[in-house]
Design a protein that fits this description.
With about 140 residues, the chain is an all-alpha fold. It has helices at about 1-35, 40-75, 80-105, 110-135. Helix 1 (about 1-35) runs antiparallel to helix 2, helix 2 packs antiparallel against helix 3 (about 80-105) and helix 3 packs antiparallel against helix 4 (about 110-135). The relative contact order is 0.16. The protein has one domain (about 1-135). About 85% of the residues lie in helices and about 0% in strands.
Length: about 140
């Protein structure tokens, strides 16, 4: 049973991360490019509709990452100082991604493309740190 819970939490963490970072990457590359083909008044409407549709996924992904991340942290103790330093950096970047993802999904966000770019960069750095932490674990 403990093994099944560990697998479930790992799955929740990975799918939540993929939803959050992948959605931002899609929004930045595909949605922003699509908006450029629209008239200015239609562009804002399109962006707001996209943000409104994506917001429930962002909230669910953030909740999934918090729950699974807390579980993973509580069940895997006894790491080196280097591990904890990198984990701290990862958590700070994750807070950045969470906050900006919620800002991006507001109905009227004038800097949506710029915010998504920063979120994607932070998200990809988090993935790289995670891969390294998994390796030194």
């Amino acid at each position: 049973m403990v093994e099944a819970l560990a697998v479930l939490m790992r799955w929740l963490h990975l799918t939540s991360m993929a939803t959050l970072v992948g959605g931002m990457l899609f929004g930045r590359l595909a949605i922003t490019a699509s908006e450029e083909a629209l008239a200015p008044d239609a562009r804002e409407s399109f962006g707001s509709r996209f943000a409104g549709a994506y917001r429930p996924l962002v909230v669910a992904a953030v909740a999934g990452l918090i729950v699974s991340g807390t579980y993973n942290l509580m069940t895997n103790s006894g790491h080196s100082v280097r591990y904890h330093v990198l984990l701290g950096i990862k958590l700070l970047l994750a807070l950045h991604v969470f906050a900006v993802a919620l800002l991006v999904t507001k109905p009227q966000s004038p800097r949506r493309a710029r915010l998504m770019t920063g979120t994607v960069i932070s998200g990809l750095i988090i993935v790289a740190i995670s891969a390294y932490l998994r390796r030194i674990y």
